[in-house]
Amino acid sequence: SSFSGIVYNYDEEGVHRDETGWEQCISVPLVQPDMFGLLHEWDKLLEDFSAGKDWLPHRYEEHEHNCYTYALAFINSVLTAQGKQHMSKSEFTEKFVIPQTKRASKYIALHQELMAKEFYIVHHPEQEKQC
């Protein structure tokens, strides 16, 4: 996504820029807080990359040239600009996607358990003062 939260994605219709519709998705943070220079360039890099010919609608192929390919290619273009080595699909999946998916899975399981047992959480500001 862009710095302002616009989600860039790619499908058989080309690149999309969505402000809504991704609320149920997992965000995988890629930029470390100390990378201020990259944060300021991020949106321009993302827009320039997305305008490339590789992401025209007719290039889309469900298994080999898809949204995951788009996201990984963008990440690799940023890594190249920083003089760093590219990541493979498996490396990116293992390093970034799986850990966030596991974390989300735990929260979903907890939420489902609370809903099934009809528990709810109540905020008690007076208890915070006692701590």
Give the distance, in angstroms, between the N- and C-terminal Cα atoms: 39 Å
Structural class: mainly alpha
Strand order of the largest sheet: 1-2
The pLDDT mean sits at 88
Strand count, sense and barrel status of the largest sheet are: 2 strands, antiparallel
What order do the helices and strands follow? EEHHHH
Level of helix content? 40-55%
Large-scale geometry: globular
Assess the beta-strand content as a share of residues: 5-15%
Please count the helical segments: 4
Regions with little confidence, pLDDT below 50 for 5+ residues: none
Salient structural properties:
about 130 residues; mainly alpha; two-stranded antiparallel ribbon; about 50% helix; MKRN2OS-like_C
Overview of this protein structure:
- This protein has 131 residues and is mainly alpha-helical.
- The chain has a domain at 7-89.
- Helices cover 49% and strands 8% of the residues.
- It is built from four helices and two strands; from the N terminus they run E-E-H-H-H-H.
- The chain has helices at residues 36-50, 67-81, 89-116, 125-130, and strands spanning 7-11, 14-18.
- It has a two-stranded antiparallel ribbon.
- A hairpin with a 2-residue loop joins strand 1 and strand 2 (14-18).
- The longest helix has 28 residues, at 89-116.
- The chain is globular, with a radius of gyration of 19 Å.
- 3% of the residues are buried.
- Pfam families: DUF4796_C.
- Residues 4-114 form the MKRN2 opposite strand protein-like C-terminal domain.
- This is MKROS protein.
